[in-house]
């Protein structure tokens, strides 16, 4: 665990931007991951833009971009979370739901902060085990239909990726009543027992700040751009930014960290 009282550097505020990668950035994983998943035509426009500005890329970055533009087959040489030694200041988790008469779909978003910087963000689409699990959807949440290309089994996702990440880092959620109940329900329904992590929630800090209790409004109050569309990944990024700010005004946030395992 590497979460401490004076962890954050104000000059390294973890913010998200569509241009999150830069030609000389240190985070090779994020750069290569972006190049791998970006359409070649977008990369070409991006490369041309920086060439006009006479800004040079690191040699390995330029090579990756040219390969993706030319062949479209570039693969990130680094693995997650190994590249970051699976050690993060904290990880933010958020959920969004979409449903139709035949299915209930959940989008799980994650944002990873290391050394006071947002280093990676991603999301996964999962399905509850059966239609009887409609109670997973919080009654006070707006439910929207998402066009999903990939849906994963939560147990396989937890066993293969999430357990290693969550069990070894501080997990930050927005509302422990909602998000934690969703996690507990998923653990129960999938008979998952290998969870043992520390967590805290944004709302527990909001009580001492006097700020709005709505995540999007909180983000805007602290000066962050918050996208309007429903996206768990964006929610996780907003949660990371907000938690960072609240931890500054309330340095005793460590007092609000709790533990979750099979025993509780």
TrEMBL record:
One of its GO terms (molecular function) is nucleic acid binding. This is Uncharacterized protein. It comes from Algoriphagus aquimarinus.
């Amino acid at each position: 665990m590497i979460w401490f009282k004076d962890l954050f550097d104000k000059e390294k505020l973890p913010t998200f931007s569509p241009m999150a990668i830069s030609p000389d950035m240190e985070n090779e994983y994020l750069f290569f991951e972006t190049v791998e998943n970006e359409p070649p035509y977008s990369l070409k426009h991006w490369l041309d833009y920086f060439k006009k500005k006479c800004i040079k890329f690191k040699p390995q970055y330029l090579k990756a971009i040219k390969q993706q533009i030319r062949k479209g087959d570039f693969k990130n040489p680094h693995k997650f979370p190994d590249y970051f030694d699976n050690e993060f200041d904290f990880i933010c988790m958020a959920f969004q739901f979409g449903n139709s008469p035949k299915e209930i779909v959940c989008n799980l978003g994650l944002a990873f902060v290391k050394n006071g910087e947002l280093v990676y963000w991603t999301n996964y689409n999962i399905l509850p085990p059966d239609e009887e699990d409609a109670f997973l959807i919080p009654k006070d949440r707006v439910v929207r239909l998402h066009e999903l290309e990939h849906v994963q089994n939560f147990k396989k996702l937890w066993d293969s990726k999430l357990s290693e990440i969550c069990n070894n880092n501080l997990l930050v959620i927005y509302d422990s009543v909602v998000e934690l109940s969703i996690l507990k329900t998923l653990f129960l329904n999938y008979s998952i027992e290998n969870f043992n992590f520390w967590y805290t929630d944004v709302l527990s800090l909001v009580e001492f700040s006097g700020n709005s209790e709505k995540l999007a409004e909180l983000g805007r109050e602290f000066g962050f751009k918050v996208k309007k569309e429903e996206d768990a990944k964006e929610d996780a990024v907003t949660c990371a930014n907000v938690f960072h700010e609240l931890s500054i005004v309330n340095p005793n946030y460590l007092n609000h960290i709790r533990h979750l395992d099979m025993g509780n």
